[in-house]
Amino acid sequence: MLYFFAASCVLKHKGNGDERMDCTMKKTKRAVSLVLALCLCLTFVACGSATPPAQEESVSEVTDSATRTVTDMRGKTVTIPADPQRVAIFDKGFVTQTMTALGVSDRIVASGGLVQATSMAEERDSLTLCPQLLDLPQLGYPTDAVDFEALAAAKPDLVILRNSEYIKDSDVTAQAIQRIEEEFHIPLVVVNGPGVYNPVSLEAQYEGVELLGQVFGQEEKAKAIVDQMKKTLDLIDERTRDIPDEEKPAVMYIGLTNKDAVGNVWGQDFGDAKFSTEVAHIRNAYTEHGSEKMSAEQILALNPDVMILCTNSVRPHPDILKQPEYAVLSSLPAVQNDRVTSLGLLTWWGDFRLELPTVLLIAAKSAYPEQFSDIQVGRWLNEYHSQLYGLDEEQAQHLKEVQQLDWMDEADF
């Protein structure tokens, strides 16, 4: 357009004499110079306009690098934040304990499954380790209902669901997974517990730790946790694998109730008895794979040589069977020979969390005390927790008391 303006100036003055022509030529030269100058400016501006595409490209690169993919234990590829900062969890302790051991528990912004209306930090080991959960939004749990409004309000950039044998077939679980992914579009990582599989899978326990290590970029720490667990389980297996079947006592895993000496008995490779046969080579007095509520008569008929009180006991302390309300069981060999021990509050209905080696070490020493006479499990547990969570001796002892395992100190177990 500037070019046509200069040309029209020349045409307007054509044929009017030399002076006017000279003037016209001068004006034309000035106009041309102006045009050239403006063209140069436009050229520089045009060259400068290459910068925004470069900036757009860098933004795209940042966006790509801000996410990555992991394969969760459903076998599903999930796109997650490269460095998750706001994590909502549905959990009975495994995720909480693992995130604490990995040093990332401060990223939890909402939780469901651990905190009840009257919960206190002293009631559960996971709340003792991670007391901030008591002050965070509560999301409910798939055994009952999930509070999706609270989940949305927490604005998580990642949700982690610990799946177990108790919720894997629940309609609430299926609905929660669907709504989190399809309605709220929040990345969801599912971590399966060993009881999800049939038969139960020991490798799933390790895989869950490794998956969380991958999610939070803490693969080396996760490997150290798994290696420590495997080291203890290898020791248990080595000391018990060659015990002849005829020398194995009948061991009963039982959660005692406070009515009529009735108890929930855990069968082989189920609940708190998982892996006891595979790793500790224990002979379970109840050979079915499942849990059954039994009367005193049924318990007496099984006649266990050893009784291990499970987490679902009304009071998981070995001396409970000395109380008058359980006098009907006083004739059992386990009671007569003072071979009653306890898992305290180590599990949540059979979800072993990071206490897998603790559960199996207590069980193995309960069944085969001679093979483990050199190990004082109460002291071993303090050392394990100190290494796992970075606790000092006083903190480790307190955690053991919260787990109701200080009976081991009293009994020199």
Main sheet overview: 6 strands, mixed
Q: List SSEs in N-to-C order.
A: HHHEEEHEHEEHEHEHHEEEEHEHEHHHH
From the helix content, strand content and strand pairing, which structural class follows?
A: alpha/beta
Q: Give the full name of the CATH homologous superfamily of the largest domain.
A: Nitrogenase molybdenum iron protein domain
Tell me the number of helical segments per DSSP (H or I, 4 or more residues long): 15
C-alpha Rg, in Å? 35 Å
Going by CATH, the architecture of the largest domain would be: 3-Layer(aba) Sandwich
Residue fraction in strands: 5-15%
- Ends apart, CA distance between termini: 97 Å
Overall 3D geometry?
globular
How many β-strands, per DSSP? Answer: 14
What is CATH's topology name of the largest domain?
A: Rossmann fold
Number of separate domains: 3
Low-confidence stretches: 1-63
Helix content: 40-55%
Please, what is the average pLDDT?
Answer: 85
Instruction: Please write the CATH class name of the largest domain.
Output: Alpha Beta
Write structural notes for this entry:
There is one protein chain. With 413 residues, this protein is α/β, with parallel strands linked by helices. Strand 7, helix 7 and strand 8 form a beta-alpha-beta unit. The longest helix is centred in the N-terminal third of the chain and has 31 residues.
Describe the secondary structure blueprint for this structure.
Layout lengths: L1 H11 L5 H31 L2 H15 L1 E5 L5 E5 L5 E4 L3 H9 L5 E5 L12 H5 L10 E2 L3 E2 L1 H7 L3 E6 L7 H13 L4 E5 L9 H14 L3 H22 L9 E7 L6 E4 L16 E2 L6 E4 L1 H7 L3 E4 L23 H4 L3 E3 L13 H12 L9 H13 L3 H10 L4 H5 L2
Parallel strand pairs: 3-4, 3-7, 7-8, 9-11, 9-13, 13-14
Antiparallel strand pairs: 1-2, 5-6, 9-10, 10-12
Helix pairs in contact: 1-2, 8-9, 9-12, 13-14
